[in-house]
Specification:
Elements (H helix, E strand, L loop, with lengths): L4 H13 L9 H15 L9 E6 L2 E6 L6 E5 L13 H11 L2 E5 L11 H12 L4 E6 L1 H12 L8 E5 L10 H5 L8 H12 L23 E8 L3 H13 L4 E10 L10 H18 L5
Parallel strand pairs: 3-4, 3-5, 5-6, 6-7, 7-8
Antiparallel strand pairs: 1-2, 2-4
């Protein structure tokens, strides 16, 4: 139940540009609606922030700020179908400005033109091209990609930490949030199934990295900060992943945001709840950056 008027205004503004049926449209139409919606909320970059596009590891990236000893790798959301460097440009700029860390956003390939694991391959290529310590941050699909990257790089050049914001982690759909929030604003359970089919086709998903919740061994992973939206079918994916990470001996902090829906990062300028959540993300990134490199 959402009663916060600021959140309700955010939902109305989002749906005006990005109606629920856009999730079921063809990829081109979906992207057009999504980009238009993101443009409504996109804020200006902080004054003086250096921003440039580069090719890193063969993948187009956008770099915010000068090089710092620890960097932030940002993996955007959008169901692996929509989104890109522009959709999350102001989020990345704000993280760079608030933390003083260089932020590198990855323009990974999208489905259905590129099926899994193309997205992980791109994120991994960028990560492996960067030799200094870093933190991986992602929202929604980017949160799943963050978890997969940390699993993939375990025992190699592992991240200092991972920040997962309302992630979809391959839950089986039986957790309470999938039914309680089946018709939640901004993301419905049926939308999750639609994006899943576009990413994987009709074939069975056999790669455990595509569903981090299904990975048998979750030991020896970087410290995790997992933020969930309470009014979101994916809420319990984050809760369950946090529980499994703790059981495997990892450091993890779980934060659930009451009355906030999926995608609320875009409301951080207009909603006090969203602003406080984003400030918590910023604080955690700064804390993780202070960790000694492995």
């Amino acid at each position: 139940m959402i009663s916060d008027p600021q959140v309700l205004d955010f939902i109305a503004a989002t749906e005006a540009a990005y109606p629920a049926e856009a999730n079921g449209a063809g990829p081109d139409d979906n992207r057009r609606h999504y980009d238009a919606m993101c443009a409504v909320f996109r804020g200006p970059r902080p004054d003086g922030l250096q921003v440039a596009d580069h090719n890193i590891g063969g993948v187009r990236c956008r770099v915010y700020g000068a090089e710092t000893p620890v960097f932030v790798l940002y993996l955007h959301g959008g169901g692996f179908v929509v989104g890109g460097l522009d959709s999350h440009d102001d989020v990345c700029a704000d993280i760079a400005d608030a933390t003083g860390l260089q932020v590198i956003a990855v323009d990974y390939r999208l489905a259905p033109e590129h099926r899994w694991p193309a997205q992980l391959d791109d994120a991994r290529a960028v990560w492996r091209a960067l030799s200094r310590p870093g933190i991986v941050v992602g929202d929604s699909a980017g949160g799943a990609l963050t978890a997969a990257l940390c699993l993939s790089e375990r025992g190699r050049h592992a991240p200092l930490g991972q920040v997962l914001i309302y992630p979809g982690l391959g839950g089986d759909g039986h957790a309470p949030s999938y039914t309680e929030n089946a018709e939640a604003p901004l993301l419905r359970s049926v939308d999750i199934l639609t994006y899943h089919r576009l990413l994987h086709g009709e074939r069975p998903v056999t790669d455990p990295l595509a569903r981090p919740l299904q990975v048998a061994d979750l030991s020896c992973l970087p410290p995790a900060f997992i933020v969930t939206a309470d009014i979101d079918p994916l809420r319990d994916d984050g809760r369950d992943y946090a529980a499994r990470l703790r059981k495997a001996g990892n450091t993890v902090h779980l934060r659930n945001e009451a009355e906030l829906p999926h995608g609320y990062l875009r409301a951080r300028r207009s909603s006090d709840r969203a602003r406080r959540s984003f400030q918590a993300v910023i604080a955690k990134i700064a804390t993780l950056a202070a960790l000694d490199p492995p």
